[in-house]
């Protein structure tokens, strides 16, 4: 069985990652501004490639992935893809937190509190 490397971030995908960073959604911009202030004491990267997948935000030290879901994620096909993707990421030892764009935009404190709680929980487990 051929497995993709866990930390691909392959150089041939640099243009695509740059495209994703330039074309962030409003929610991704808001969350990135919150995460990059390092108020959580952990470094997050955005649009990071793991295997064949690009994740929205990733903390290597904790193996924590944070995903923001817009309206397209309500579509049945996308939900099926997200479940398959999350299942694979979890099987590789990653923790995936998902939030809707609306959750972030209308309740930033709650979202950041949940992310912070997960960071503390994971740091104690290491």
Question: How would you summarize what this structure contains?
Answer:
The protein has 126 residues and is an alpha+beta fold.
The CATH fourth-level homologous superfamily = VSR Endonuclease
Total beta strand runs? 4
CATH topology descriptor: Endonuclease, Chain A
**CATH architectural designation:** 3-Layer(aba) Sandwich
Give the CA-CA distance, first to last residue. 30 Å
Uncertain segments of ≥5 residues (pLDDT<50)? 1-5
Q: Walk across the major sheet and give the strand order.
A: 1-2-3-4
Helix percentage range: 40-55%
Query: What is the level 1 CATH name?
Result: Alpha Beta
**Pattern of helices and strands:** HHEEEHEHH
Please outline the major beta sheet: 4 strands, mixed
Structural class: alpha+beta
Number of helices: 5
């Amino acid at each position: 069985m051929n497995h993709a490397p866990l930390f691909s971030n392959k150089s041939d995908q640099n243009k695509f990652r740059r495209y994703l960073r330039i074309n962030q959604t409003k929610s991704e911009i808001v969350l990135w501004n919150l995460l990059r202030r390092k108020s959580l004491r952990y470094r997050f990267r955005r649009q990071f490639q793991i295997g064949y997948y690009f994740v929205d935000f990733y903390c290597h030290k904790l193996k924590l992935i944070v995903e923001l879901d817009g309206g397209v994620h309500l579509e049945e096909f996308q939900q099926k893809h997200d479940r398959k993707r999350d299942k694979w990421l979890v099987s590789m030892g990653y923790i995936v937190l998902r939030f809707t764009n609306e959750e972030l935009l209308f309740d930033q404190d709650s979202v950041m509190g949940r992310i912070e709680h997960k960071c503390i929980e994971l740091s104690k487990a290491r």
